[in-house]
Amino acid sequence: MSFRATILTLYPEMFPGHLGTSLAGKAMERGQWSLDTVQIRDFATDRHRTVDDTPAGGGAGMVLKPDVLARAIDHASENDNRPRLLMSPRGKPLTQKRVRELANGDGVIIVCGRFEGVDQRVIDGRDLEEVSIGDYILSGGEPAALILLDAIVRILPGVMGNDLSGLHESFEGGLLEHPHYTRPQLWEDREIPAVLTSGNHAAIAKWQREQAEQLTRERRPDLLDKMPKA
């Protein structure tokens, strides 16, 4: 059974984007995952195909209309239990844990917001899970959806050449990843740490763990606070 992603967007031409190339693109060709888009504007009923309106209570920008978006969601999710996600800067921060949960399912339905946001009533009425990829603002949800799918697709079984690769990366064990090195042994007067060429696997593992802890302590001390105490 392949992983199915359905994207609700005003700009379907933005997909599959970079996911149509490299490992993700090859996995799509093999049928390990699929992507289809739904044009939200197709569910507008007026002759101008209007999808947005001014915000109630005043303010700048426009808001996606709940009736139009709800029809698009209902069309995409009829008899379908896949999680319904809304890419939103106010959503819960995306974590590797959530990525793995989604990758273990049948797929996702992703709503890409535009303008000032989405009418709260459709978020509540269609049980949309708001997801954020970071504390910054994008022009729309499409780039965020591509990032989310990139994180999911790469860990689907058989997508990466070595499935073990995904188990030794930043955030998988709660820490940032240790530094990496490769030949040549000496480059611009900088050497590969001797322990990595010692052949002592226990010493190498200890070094990698210590380096990961040090990097995490320096750059993301918040991750250490979330780790279970020994």
TrEMBL record:
The UniProt entry's GO CC annotations, sorted and at most eight, read: cytosol
Region entry Disordered: which residue ranges? 211-230
Its Enzyme Commission number(s) read 2.1.1.228
Localization of this protein = Cytoplasm
Instruction: Specify the tRNA methyltransferase TRMD/TRM10-type domain's residue ranges.
Output: 4-225
The UniProt entry lists the main location of this chain as cytoplasm
Look at the named UniProt entry and state the broad enzyme category this protein falls under: transferase
A biological process (GO) of this protein is: tRNA N1-guanine methylation
What superkingdom does the record give?
Bacteria
Enzymatic reactions: guanosine(37) in tRNA + S-adenosyl-L-methionine = N(1)-methylguanosine(37) in tRNA + S-adenosyl-L-homocysteine + H(+)
One molecular function GO term is: tRNA (guanine(37)-N1)-methyltransferase activity
Q: Does the keyword tRNA processing apply?
A: yes
Q: Which residues bind S-adenosyl-L-methionine?
A: G113, I133, G134, D135, Y136, I137, L138
Question: Which SUPFAM superfamilies does the UniProt record give?
Answer: alpha/beta knot
Record key words, sorted: Cytoplasm, Methyltransferase, S-adenosyl-L-methionine, Transferase, tRNA processing
* Assembly and binders: Homodimer.
Q: Which family does it belong to?
A: Belongs to the RNA methyltransferase TrmD family.
Q: What does this protein do?
A: Specifically methylates guanosine-37 in various tRNAs.
Q: What is this protein called?
A: tRNA (guanine-N(1)-)-methyltransferase
